Amino acid sequence: AINTIGPTIMQFGTAAQKSDLLPRILRGELHFGVGYTESGSGTDLASLTTRAVCDGDDYVIDGQKIFTTHAQDADYIWLATRTNADVPKHEGISMLAIDLKTPGIRVDPMHLLSEHDINTVFFDDVRVPVTTVVGKENQGWRLITSQLNHERVTLCSAGLLAQAYEETVAWT
């Protein structure tokens, strides 16, 4: 949350989202699972089918995500949803920051060969306020790429590489 979702909320979130979510992320009190991958989509994230349909001041969400790391311990999910099926697939996606305690959300562990904290997350008529949208409706692709760019930098920290190099040189 602190290295990938926090910076994306800083850039695209509303003032209310920033004042609510960012301090809790910074204090280590708010953890996110990333809800991107779906069955049958492979690596084509834009083909997602989890839907968020606007109903007054709420969205109603139905669908599922797989390979959601640490969802069993997370407080929120950073959820990519289809909010408009009538536009090109990259344009009809919205990002929502949703409390995982919301009724209708179920987190099931995936039983894999190794010890991983990976889950399937189900959404069954989940109602959330429209204020959970981060950024603008149907413009979530930009937030997805922003979050993933921050994640890539985090996964390959230059400081850790430099330390490994220096330790290897010292050892040899």
- Spatial strand order of the main sheet: 1-4-5-8
Number of helical stretches of at least 4 residues: 4
Mean pLDDT rating: 87
What is the end-to-end distance?
Answer: 37 Å
Q: How many E-type strands?
A: 8
Tell me about the biggest sheet? 4 strands, mixed
Radius of gyration: 17 Å
Oligomer: single chain
Task: Give the proportion of residues in helices.
Answer: 25-40%
Unreliable sequence segments = none
Shape: globular
Q: Strand share of the residues?
A: 25-35%
The SS-based structural class is alpha+beta
Tell me the series of helices and strands, N- to C-terminal.
HHEEEEEEEEHH
Give a description of the structure:
By secondary structure, this protein is an alpha+beta fold. The protein is built from 4 helices and 8 strands. The strands form 2 sheets. Strands 1-4-5-8 form a 4-stranded mixed beta sheet. The protein has a 4-stranded antiparallel beta sheet with strand order 2-3-7-6, with no helix packed on it. Helix 1 runs antiparallel to helix 3. The longest helix has 16 residues, at 140-155. The model has no long low-confidence stretch (mean pLDDT 87).
